[in-house]
Amino acid sequence: IAYGLSLSILILRSFFVTLPRSLEDAARVDGLSPFKIYWKIMLPLALPSLYTVIILQTIFVWNEFLFALVFIRSLDMFTLPRGLMAFRGTYVTMYGPLNAGIMIAALPPIILYIIFSDRIRKGMAIGLQKG
């Protein structure tokens, strides 16, 4: 998650900077606390940006390979991409199990896309309208 943190901060900050200050001032005049302003007004407006961050972070974490390759030595702690490397040998590669593992690894992101595709499209459409 730390590798994608800078991009997430950039995306969310660039969204929150575009919000007018008068929106927060009007909520404060109505008697909302800072937490209520964030929870009831700012957070619902930021949902498309949050969906973008969630999708990008999920992809970064799911496909994480380098950290596991460099730092993790225990077989039971390997991430999925690093575990798939076990099917590749020096002289022989087991293509059947490797391809089956790749297909299994590809299923969760595909299922998540099918579930959240309408929100992804709405978020992209909102981003295009603002630009």
From TrEMBL:
Keyword tRNA processing included in the entry's annotation: no
Compartments (UniProt record): Cell membrane
Transmembrane segments: 50-72, 92-116
Keyword field: Cell membrane, Membrane, Transmembrane, Transmembrane helix, Transport
Listed GO biological process terms: transmembrane transport
A single Gene Ontology CC term: plasma membrane
Annotated ABC transmembrane type-1 domain residues: 1-116
CDD domains: TM_PBP2
Membrane topology of this protein: Multi-pass membrane protein
PANTHER family: ABC TRANSPORTER PERMEASE PROTEIN MG189-RELATED-RELATED, SN-GLYCEROL-3-PHOSPHATE TRANSPORT SYSTEM PERMEASE PROTEIN UGPE
Protein name as catalogued: ABC transmembrane type-1 domain-containing protein
